[in-house]
Amino acid sequence: MRKNKKIAIICSALSLCLLLTACSDSSSNKETEVTTVAEKQQTFKMSIDKTKTYQTIESFGTSGAWWSQYIGGWDEEYQDSGHSKAEEIAKLLYDKEYGIGLTNYRYNMGAGSADSGNGSYSDKHRRAQSFLDENGKYDWTKDTEAVTFLEQVVKYGAEEVVLFSNSPLETLTTNGMAHMNKEQTDNLPKENYEAFADYVFDVTEHFLDIGIPVVGVSPINEPQWEWTSSQEGCHYEPEQLADVFEVFYEKQKSRKKLKDIEITGPEGGEWKGKTYDYVEEMLSRDIIKENMTTIDNHSYWTNASDKRQFKSWMDKNYPDVELRASEWCEMVNGSDYTMDSAYNLAKVIVEDLTILDVKAWSNWVGVAPGGYRDGLIYATEGSKTIVPLKRLWGYGNYSRFIRPGYQRVDISAAGMANTLNPVAFIGISEEGKEEMVIVIINQAKESKEIDLTFVDQSTYTKAEYHETSDENNLILINETEFQGTVSVNGESITTIILQ
Fold first, then answer.
1. What is the phi/psi pair of residue 406, to 5°?
2. How far is CA 436 from CA 47, 150, 433, 447, in A?
3. How far is CA 73 from each of CA 87, 105, 128, 328, 344, rounded to the nearest angstrom?
4. Reduced to 3 states, what is the DSSP secondary structure of residue 314?
5. What DSSP string describes 187-210?
6. N or C terminus of the chain with fewer C-beta within 10 Å?
7. Quick check: helix, strand or coil at residue 109?
């Protein structure tokens, strides 16, 4: 009987242990559950200070290099829309209701390699015509389809046009080609600098005469590279580049019609390396320093640290000179139709806006044939198919809503919200109302609740949400009363407009 009692006591103790263990596991599971839910429902905090202001936006844009010279001729009607396929592309890029509302267009002023057939090119579309015929006379019917497309983008919203050259005219180069030989160090003889400037300015005056809103000319592109094949291009050392710009500024003095045209550059390929040398040499020349108030440069091959270093150097040495990011694409092989390249593009825009304080930003090409992460739209030449990409709409989260004249204001994010890459701008809407434009990148699967506080006690009553995601292409997904908190869906780029 004692033995049975002992067994009973042991059994009871084991049962109690098991019960306590079960309770402990249950409690632990509940705590984990609660923690997970809490994490998902956590409200992030962002503070906006309108009294702390940065750059004023001038434009967002893209270029027409290597595609407008054939797409400009796509005059077939697009899907019973009442407009042509070329117009569809122009509307997607420049119409601020139908498309993404870009306002700057960079027109490729060709060097004539498409006329001569000279040189070695990886793609016939990387050749371009010039406006001079074989007798050296101007023929304004040349590059017809590219000019037609230029007129379309102006019709649909391009307020600024910049004419850029990858190479001087073939007829002015040392080797008679629009790219260099491997043994060369330059391809434009000094005695031809003036003729090059005259050609660029003649074309500029012509475009102004036909109503094209040209605001700038860019005579040199990525001067640090060798450009020995593949596309039109020309290498310049810093002194040579500054010499060319001096000639352009001197020649501009005699062109009264062009007194307000900017001569932009140096269009270096990166915000590091030899770009320092080009900028320093240019701004050491009096005539350039007096006239060049903004440096235009490209954002390739440059990380956030490089950009901080360059901006710090500019602020120290040239505090009155502003910056533009005039070209970028992801430089990755393979077509991408997904949000992945849209996120990457958006993050570079945010870096350039917040680190470099650029007042303008431009994607490299508006349209591409596919096979690379460059264009905002893929267009197939043979079948004339048009595929707007997620990176088009992701770009639009910035370009459609951050309008020319809007000013960046300080937005600080606490904790994990720093991963959301927020930017904030303030401006006056077309209806004459003050509005705050906030763009947030949320790559996480979970939605984020964000508590907004305004240092200056600003009061807004209405919030609009425009989303780019797997499901939506820059769509207005919500319009609601604003009570201090906003929410962004997971895996999205979202623009929030407060009024």
1. -75, 145
2. 13, 32, 10, 21
3. 10, 18, 15, 26, 32
4. helix
5. -S-GGGHHHHHHHHHHHHHHHHHT
6. N
7. coil
Amino acid present at 150? L
Judge whether 162 and 217 are in contact, CB under 8 Å.
yes
Neighbours of 471 (CB within 10 A): 11
Task: Name the superfamily (CATH) of residues 58-327.
Answer: Glycosidases (3.20.20.80)
pLDDT score of 33 more than 70: no
pLDDT interval class at 29 (50, 70, 90): very low
Residue 93's SS3 state is: helix
**What are the sequence ranges of the domains in the chain?**
42-54+408-498, 58-327
Task: Tell me the mean pLDDT in the region 483-499.
Answer: 97
Rounded Cα distance, 111 and 169, in Å = 4
**H or E, element range at 161:** strand 160-164
pLDDT in tens, 420-452: 999 999 999 999 999 999 999 999 999 999 999
- Please report which confidence band the pLDDT of residue 416 belongs to, taking 50, 70 and 90 as the band edges: low
Region for residue 323 given its phi and psi (left: phi exceeds 0; alpha: psi -120 to 50; beta: otherwise): beta
How far is it, in rounded angstroms, from Cα 495 to Cα 155?
26
- Residues 378 and 335: beta-carbon distance below 8 Å: yes
What integer best gives the mean pLDDT of the chain?
92
* HSE (side-chain half, CA atoms, 13 Å) at 121: 20
284: DSSP letter: T
Q: Is cis: bond before 189, omega within 30 of 0?
A: no
- Between vectors from CA 249 to CA 244 and to CA 252, what angle results, nearest 5°? 125
Q: In what helix (H) or strand (E) does residue 442 lie, and over which residues does it extend?
A: strand 434-442
Let me know: does 224 contact 263? Beta carbons within 8 Å.
Answer: no
CA–CA separation, 87 and 97 (whole Å): 14
Beta pairing class for 104-108 and 59-63? parallel
CA atoms within 13 A on the CB side of 417: 23
Residues in contact with 207: Cβ distance below 8 Å, sequence separation at least 6, in sequence order = 107, 161, 163, 214
Taking the C-alpha atoms of residue 297 and residue 360, their distance in angstroms, rounded to an integer, is 11
* 414 band by pLDDT with thresholds 50, 70 and 90: confident
Fold of 42-54+408-498: Immunoglobulin-like (2.60.40)
* Burial class of residue 267, CB neighbours in 10 A (0-12, 13-18, 19+): buried
Say if residues 316 and 367 touch (Cβ distance below 8 Å): no
pLDDT confidence of residue 42: 64
